[in-house]
Fold these 2 entries.
Entry 1:
Amino acid sequence: MLVAFCRVMIDLSNAAFNHQSMSFKDSPPNKQALLFKLEPDYASRFATEVSKIIQTARQNPCGKADIIMGDSRELGRINDQMFDLLITSPPYPNRMSYIRELRPYMYWLHYLKNAREAGEMDWQAIGGTWGIATSRLNEWEPTRGVFTPSYLRRIVSEIATGDGKNGEILSRYVAKYFEDMWLHLCRIYQLIREDGKIHYIVGNSVFYGTVVPVEKIYGDMLKEVGFRDVQITTIRKRNSKKALFEFDVSARK
């Protein structure tokens, strides 16, 4: 019922999802007044959403799944398990904050109480850069010994000089993103069985005209970690800039 409540609230709001980042449209005349009228239609909307969620729950396939909260750079809570297959879609290095996009739901469901909590959570996330996470990037420095392809260093340098106002902080953002992913890949290698397969669904990005070939960087990191048979498959064109695509970067241990 709480999920149904969130779905109705976001539907009745002025939230716009027609581009990468959620925003709010201007209110049409009398829109706010309409929202606070207790009309039967709103109750039926809520009932419809509850019904949809119940039907979906009943259609779940049989089986068992474990949801484990943890840091994907460490994965310490699954030390006693090994896996045959990994399929995941990590955040893309495009400065899109999932916490920012999900804030309405997370406040309504009491996962967040204030903006600082959202910023703290975003700083912990790979690719997070909202609120205090942005300011902390100014103080972040790369860790010695982390694998960084030479062309990635060049790309980071180009981004830093691409815009006088934001170039430096965005270059740090990109560098930190790939350092975090390197730490993750090193850890995940220890948890995949011999001949096990992995699939990373990722998208490339562009900053000030500089293309960040995320798929190639992932491929090179996978090879450096020790994975073999690395393949990069283009999945689709994304609904944004011309140079942006989504890829399946796969490999075998």
Entry 2:
Amino acid sequence: MTIAIIERPQSRESEVGEQKSYVERVYTATGSDDDSAIHAAVAGMLPATYLGLPIASYRISPIGNGNWDVVARYDSREPVESSSSYTFDTGGGTQHITQSLQTVQAKSAGGGTAPDFQGAIGVTTDSVEGADVTIPVYNFTETHMFFDAVVDQAYKLTLFNLTGRTNNAAFKGFAAGEVLFLGASGSKRGSNLWEITFRFAASPNVSGLTVGSITGIAKSGWDYLWVRYADAEDQKVLVKQPIAVYVERVYESGNFAGLGIGT
């Protein structure tokens, strides 16, 4: 006898919330008293997703005469809200700069006026050596649980393709361009759950920067700013002064909604 799965009228009970959503679909499976045959048929006939939610689990119970109750649960990505965890640090990062924010003091031998380098740091005859400084970088991680059905090859490739990209829209309270996705690591717990840790670094977007006589400079958090210098004369001394500023985009951007951990 052919096994059939019929959805019942009381099916599709659902709950939708900010953190989690689910739908339960209820069926009657008929046509066999064989446990293995019913399980194989149910596994092959149940939709993998419903209303955008992946199947999280299903329950099969015998009710006699070759009939079975089947309850399939379609759930949001995170199966256990309390299993999520978060860490952060504000240790910052290091950046090599060639311009100061302000020249606080410049003194010349004999009490004369020191040559004006317009904020260039460590100027020599041939170059501007600069200095390494600590810059604000907010490092944070989030660990979330996912159902096994969610962590398929397509999702793993999404994580891979977003690694080394910046956010193209607001994310976790940061403006577009401020967050860099450093990658994710995952491990499977039991037969149906994955624990995945996501690593990020955030650096602020800035505007209104001034370098020497050049004003109105803006850069996204992970853009790279560099300065072109040229020889000039000041106080009858050959100096190097900034003549151009360049802001370079060095990271591609991406849609972090694809990570599946909210934005």
